[in-house]
Write a structure and sequence with these properties.
Radius of gyration: 16 Å
Number of helices: 1
Number of strands: 9
Strand content: over 45%
Largest sheet: 5 strands, antiparallel
Distance between the termini: 35 Å
Structural class: mainly beta
Helix content: under 10%
Length: about 150
């Protein structure tokens, strides 16, 4: 048996100091599932995202998901940071996570989340049909991410 969750993340902003013109996009990744925000312009040291991402997940134990900042420069995407968000139980709240693997040691992502428990499902039920409902369309490849957690609240 696995627990089925509906998870919503509203990404408010990303603080990232870069000294060149660029755009930013946030990817939320769990396993093979990926959802991307739109590409946003820099405003001072901030990128105002203001987008909601939703994903249906199935798990039998708490799992890490990754919020990945991607900088867009001259038509290419570059990794600008990785933050870890753990889905472990139903609830909602606000978070501010620091990015790892970022050129700016003070970079952060601010978001609100809502995790809704949709109940237990048999392991034989098709996960494919639900995951296809997500807005998952882009395929990007990145090196594997570290396992260090950093979960400060604001």
């Amino acid at each position: 048996m696995k627990t089925k969750y509906q998870v919503s993340l509203h990404v408010n902003k990303v603080e990232l100091c870069v000294k060149f013109p660029c755009q930013l996009q946030v990817m939320w990744k769990k396993g093979q599932d990926k959802i991307l925000t739109g590409i946003k312009e820099k405003l001072n040291k901030k990128f105002m995202i203001n987008e909601t991402l939703e994903m249906t997940v199935f798990q039998s134990e708490p799992k890490k998901t990754y919020l990945i900042a991607l900088i867009h420069i001259n038509g290419q995407s570059k990794l600008a940071g990785v933050a870890t968000f753990v889905i472990d139980k139903e609830g909602e709240g606000k978070m501010c996570l620091s990015f790892e693997k970022s050129p700016d040691i003070d970079s952060k992502i601010y978001f609100t989340f809502k995790i809704q428990n949709l109940g237990q499902v048999e392991m034989g039920e098709s996960r494919f049909s639900d995951s296809c409902k997500s807005e998952i369309s882009h395929k990007l490849t990145f090196e594997s991410f570290g396992e260090k957690e950093n979960n400060p609240s604001f």
